[in-house]
């Protein structure tokens, strides 16, 4: 099984129109984008969002599981940065991603790249968690997959209810990590939110 490079779809962009629209938005909100200190703000906003919304392509390197390794492979504390699709404000946190290998294993650094691939916004944390788990399940046919994400949503902690420091935890467990009590308990113990 040879996996091909993953080339995420980058949407068509008109950065000039985006910059004009950003200036119009800020002006409508009562901000003075003609002032010296904010003159470049619409362009900087557009660059920042374009960056946040652009995933990097990657090649998911897999290896045959020649030694028949059948214990949990787990990458903890993979940084997450994404943008919520409801407010277009960032959410940041960590992901713990693990699987019980079948016939193939994935290069360890690739677990973080899979997270990054799906974290480019606009996203919601529940979907992000499930997409990562489903992707690993499809690509590796492992015996089990587990994904836990703990993130702080700025739309929640900076405004609205202002629940500063509150974090949201989501998880998806598939296969043996869902059904086998021992595997499930091991995975959940190792990924305890802190
Ligand atoms: Zn939000």
UniProtKB/TrEMBL annotation:
Annotated Gene3D superfamilies: 1.10.286.10, 3.30.1130.10
Catalytic activity: GTP + H2O = 7,8-dihydroneopterin 3'-triphosphate + formate + H(+)
Entries under Pfam families matching the protein: GTP_cyclohydroI (PF01227)
Pathway the protein acts in: Cofactor biosynthesis; 7,8-dihydroneopterin triphosphate biosynthesis; 7,8-dihydroneopterin triphosphate from GTP: step 1/1
Claim: Transport is one of the keywords in the record: no
EC number(s) on file: 3.5.4.16
Entry keyword set: GTP-binding, Hydrolase, Metal-binding, Nucleotide-binding, One-carbon metabolism, Zinc
A single GO molecular function term of this UniProt record: GTP cyclohydrolase I activity
Entry superkingdom: Bacteria
Binding-site list for Zn(2+): 84, 87, 155
First-tier enzyme category under EC: hydrolase
Coiled coil: none
Keyword Zinc (UniProt): yes
Domain GTP cyclohydrolase I: start-end pairs: 19-191
Subunit field text: Homopolymer.
Similarity section: Belongs to the GTP cyclohydrolase I family.
Protein name according to UniProt: GTP cyclohydrolase 1
Gene: folE
């Amino acid at each position: 099984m040879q996996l091909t490079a993953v080339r995420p779809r980058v949407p068509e962009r008109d950065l000039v129109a985006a910059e004009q629209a950003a200036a119009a938005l800020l002006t409508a909100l009562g901000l003075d984008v003609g002032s010296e200190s904010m003159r470049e703000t619409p362009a900087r906003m557009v660059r920042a969002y374009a960056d946040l919304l652009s995933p990097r392509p990657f090649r998911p390197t897999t290896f045959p599981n020649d030694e028949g390794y059948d214990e949990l492979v787990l990458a903890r504390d993979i940084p997450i940065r994404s943008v919520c699709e409801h407010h277009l404000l960032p959410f940041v946190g960590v992901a713990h991603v693990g699987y019980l290998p079948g016939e193939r294993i994935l290069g360890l650094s690739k677990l973080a790249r899979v997270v990054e691939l799906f974290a480019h916004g606009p996203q919601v944390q529940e979907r992000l968690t499930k997409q990562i788990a489903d992707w690993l399940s499809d690509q590796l046919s492992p015996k089990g997959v587990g994904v836990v994400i703990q993130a702080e949503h700025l739309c929640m902690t900076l405004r609205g209810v202002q629940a500063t420091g509150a974090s949201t935890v989501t998880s998806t467990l598939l296969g043996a990590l869902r059904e086998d009590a021992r595997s499930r308990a091991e995975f959940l113990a190792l990924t305890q939110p802190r």
